[in-house]
Amino acid sequence: MLSFSKLLWRSRRLVLAILIAMMLSPIILFTMDRAKDIILDLSNTNKVLRRQLEEEIYHVGTGCNMPKLDPFAENFTSFNRNLPITRCRGVDWVNCVKSECQISQSILRTTKDVVCMYRYIIYVEDQNSYVSNPIKVVGDEIFTLNKSDHVKIECTGNPINNPIVNTHWTGYKAGFRQLPTVPVPPNRKDSYNVMILCFDSISRNGFIRNMQNSYKYLTVQLDAVILNSYNIVADGTTGALFPILSGKPEEDHVFTRRRYDNTRKKYLASQKFIFHMLKRYGYRTAYFEDMPWTGSTQQKFTWFRKQPADHYLRSFLLNDVEEEETAHRGNPTRHCMGPTPQYQFMMNMADQFLKLDGKKFCFTLIVDTAYDNMTLLPTADDALVSFLKTLNTRGDLEDTLVLVMGDHGSRYSNLRNTYQGRMEERLPLMAILLPQKLKKLRPMAFEALKRNQGVLTTPFDIHATILDVLDLKTKIDKEKIPGTALPRAMTLLETIPKSRSCGEAGVMPHWCACSEWHSVTRTEPEFAHVGRVLSEYIQSMTEDVGNLCALRKLSSTEWVLHQRAIDHLSRVNYINIKELTGKTDSLKILDDFYQARIVMYPGRAVFEGTLLYNSAGDYYMITYRDVSRVNA
């Protein structure tokens, strides 16, 4: 018999019926259990999500009225603190530029008899790498990277003014080894480069508040288009980034989720991501992320067995952390890569990548500035302005699509406890700089992008837009949410109807910021009941590892919201029961959504979840994708 966690959640009426059946007849109990088992097994959610939707789609084309949120609302600016700029100590002895590493001239002026031992950091898979045997380099000899982009270096020397003293330096350096690439097809010589710079946990409003110089430079000097109704489609970084980088929702990768034992030996398929596709067109690709010990993909999913891009920092940074174990545990140097702030190191890598020959696609995720504490974000403001100025003055913006974005808003800060914070989590930054050449060749595309500034847009649209810019429109996913006329992914270089709703865009009710919810009062029976159902579901999610986890219990229900199911397509909400049970009848009335915030103990764990209530069957439906942990 399936565990309670894998079943539809029944309301108190059905629970009472089961209790009566238990008392009256073992046969009735068996029959009831069979009925529960065949209704829906949530371990097969990925399969269920793809089934034909039968229910009529209500109010398709109603549009999306986003909430009006003031970035400088008093209760939000009060959270900000002026922090000192991140300052890092030390001096790098070695500099790496592209594929060449060499001792710094400033070190040679003060130190003699310099000898360095280089060890390659060799990637095997995401969780496995090794360090090669040392290679000796003397004085100002150039070391050329060929086996890896990354090296561990140990140098010794004698100060010129005190030759009897031996000095020592150890560090990690990254560059870009020479790589063979597929020749660019003759008809694609004029295709564009792509540079995506993503900041973790930064909403559009959060960017306006915390990076005012960058916002001004983007909008005033560079004429960037900031999407005002850009809405995430799923939880966390993977929920936001998988649609951009693969064109597919997170659930298409669900069978590699780490919490399921039967997926432990499976890996994320690197060929599903855009890096792999672009290599076939002669692109050199990079995927940079600065906090591999959290891992945007590895935290929720099993890892890549083959690195997803030509240039990939994971093994490099994991080795650096192993060398200094306290680097990510409150140590003052945590935010530094040697003498360089971590965010600056990431921008330097992205900048250097753009200097390489050939066609280039780079995705850079800077987690360090906001993952634990978004008040660190302003420290990167001037660095981002400088990065953008460099791209502009060097001429990169002529032939490069640049996206400056957030994956989602803050998920765990005190801001998240407010209504505006909850909305901002769903509305990240998305700033778009089209290549200047494209704007000249396709002026109507730029006009369409500006018209779409206030229309509901999603990560699926960003993937489609990237492909459109790269003249790969035939690769855009044509999938439509059943019952709608619009494709789920729409390029922003063509006009998107203002009437587009969350349902048409593939945004679940839990994440739709333009939903209209109504408060349920504490005196209404649904208030206590929804909180209890949500808490029982959350507790059930750890049943398979129950021996490792404390039993969580409901401490309080903070609020409950209610919405009629008239505007949304939740692909888990419309289920062809005939396929699951063999019966001819189907669920035809899917009435209400409820959303709740609850507190569970031990540990004061705060969760939010969205449940579908079916009034005809008197039960609730919920999946793990509609539950968020909102404190850490």
UniProtKB/TrEMBL annotation:
GO terms for cellular component: extracellular space. SUPFAM superfamilies: Alkaline phosphatase-like. CDD domains: ALP_like (cd16021). This is DUF229 domain-containing protein. It comes from Heliothis virescens.
